[in-house]
Amino acid sequence: MKYRSAESFRNDFRRLPAEHQRMFQEVLRKYLLPAVAAGSFGGSPPWPARLRIHRLANTEIYSLTWNFASPGGRATFHLDKAEDGDPVLVWRRIGDHGIYDRP
């Protein structure tokens, strides 16, 4: 799967402390990327429960939890298609619950 990030995500990510950036990247490597490779976007196998991935109400935007304790890390993304038709995961926002005001 291909990935890209929105400018809002890049700005949010730069504002995160380095420790939180590393935490997010570790969760991607350990849990999200293997789940994507296994086919979780298609529903089988399901997403790892620890990521708490869910679609936000009345949107095509998904949320994942990358940390439960402080800072209560969340990230939002949606799926798009590349010119060749391949799926693209687009990172939208990253931070705490405040990102849900403008996911």
Descriptive notes:
The chain is an alpha+beta fold and 103 residues long. The protein has a single domain, classed as 2-Layer Sandwich (YaeB-like fold). Helices cover 29% and strands 27% of the residues. It has a five-stranded mixed sheet. Strand 2 and strand 3 (61-65) form a beta hairpin. It is globular and about 35 Å long. The two termini are 22 Å apart. The model has no long low-confidence stretch (mean pLDDT 91).
Question: What is the gist of this entry?
Answer:
The protein has 103 residues and is an alpha+beta fold.
The 3D shape can be described as globular
Structure class:
alpha+beta
Specify the number of helices.
2
CATH class category name: Alpha Beta
List keywords for this structure.
single chain, 103 residues, alpha+beta, YaeB-like fold, five-stranded mixed beta sheet, 2 helices, 29% helix, 27% strand, globular
Topology (SSEs and partners):
Blueprint: E1 2-5, H1 7-15, H2 18-38, E2 54-55, E3 61-65, E4 74-81, E5 87-95
Parallel strand pairs: 1-5
Antiparallel strand pairs: 2-3, 3-4, 4-5
